[in-house]
Amino acid sequence: MSNLGTEDNPLLVAIVGSGPSGFYAAEALIKSELHIKVDILERLPAPFGLVRSGVAPDHQKLKQAIKLYEKIAESPDFKLIANVTVGTDISIKELCDAYHAIIFTCGAESDRKLGVHGENLKGSYTATEFVGWYNGHPDYRNREFDLSDDVAVIIGQGNVAADVSRILSKTIDELKHTDIAQHALDTLAESKIKEIHVIGRRGPAQAKFTPKELREFGELLDCDPVVLKQDLILNSESARELAEKSNIASKKIYDLFCEFSERVPDTAKSKKCFFSFLMSPKELIGDSKLEKIILEKNKLSGEPFKQSARGTGETIELDAGILFRSIGYRGIPIEGVPFNDNWGTIPNDKGRVTNLDGNLVPQLYTAGWIKRGPSGIIGTNRACSVETVECLIEDLDKLKSDTIKPGAQAIYTILNKKKIRHISFDEWKKIDAKEIEQGDSKGKPREKFTRISEMLSVIE
Ligand code: NAP
User: Fold this and answer.
1) Is the beta carbon of 327 within 6 A of some atom in ligand 1?
2) Which pTM was predicted?
């Protein structure tokens, strides 16, 4: 019988990635009746993943989730080991030697590809890099976005597309008291963009915005939302979709589009945000940079809730100097961990990592977007992490129960030998305090450090 999970032999779990799913997994482990020690390893010096660098700066309420994560971090059974890249600084074998179980909660760091000619032209960007840039993520600090054309196009109609187009649509006054990075605020202040086109490959009944996010477009200081009435005509399958009680969010979205289509244009506003449907980019054209987008008109085919967009062959041209592909995130592989390249996820059964042939890989677990793909809001990750932790605890007898593992001490020894400056939660709190102080004089919740060297200089 296993004594794992007792005071003499606590269950030691490493979590890779400090976003919402990582913290919710830590919470579920700490709340269990077993004796458990949890260490979260994080690549950046700053924790909280997409809550810090994905959630839009003008959505500060959503960032309140951090308060809960800070509570979890206060537990004596919790440690943060930040500024450490798993797969490079620490191998999976070294983690498996140090801990009984590893949970990968490293999210979806990359993006899906459109697969059209001209996709990589200057002026065509992923939403991922733009979001990272305006949120001060060190990976995107040096990106440059040329906002000198008057037309911007966003491909995709999910909440990330809503964030990107709203940031482009807002005035500096609407943004300057958020935690948007200063370099982004300076560039946006010079923006010449007047028309923003948010283009969906399917119809208005299939847009993936949430109503709250879409409603905000009706409340912008200097931008009018525009929807053409003729674009709101539904086929019978879409009408059946909207009539389903369980599809109330899509009905609310459709009603908002109808409301936007009824608006009398406000001539005092200098920007317009157009929502268009049933079109896919076929080609991006330009010499040294993007100049024009060829869009193919689509029609829907399939049963209600399974309708897909099919090209009709009919095309239109749209002159635009900048385009953001906002068609979904994608996970990236970690050396030594199985990876399903088609889905961009770690193959798993309810969070237990498997090989591609479906066989379980001992000690390895996963939760969040890298487990199920990039869907759902922050809270969705809680149930996902709880499911994984329940499986892990069910597996207690299989987790090399007789072995007392060294845990964080072994990791610190390896990192110190390699001279890797790992950061604890207390040290992060010093960086955090400095960011808040820097924001104070500007009336911002914080001014983020956007370079790793700047963060490290606070604790050196
Ligand atoms: P998403 O909700 O999955 O939306 C992706 C969009 O891209 C859809 O409109 C999709 O159309 C379209 N698309 C996919 N492949 C395409 C292609 N090849 N060509 C043209 N269009 C294509 O993804 P997301 O916006 O990246 O958001 C990810 C998750 O984060 C979502 O669950 C979202 O709600 C959440 N999120 C929430 C908030 C918030 O709560 N405020 C903010 C940001 C993100 P189809 O429907 O036809 O596939």
Assistant:
1) yes
2) 0.96
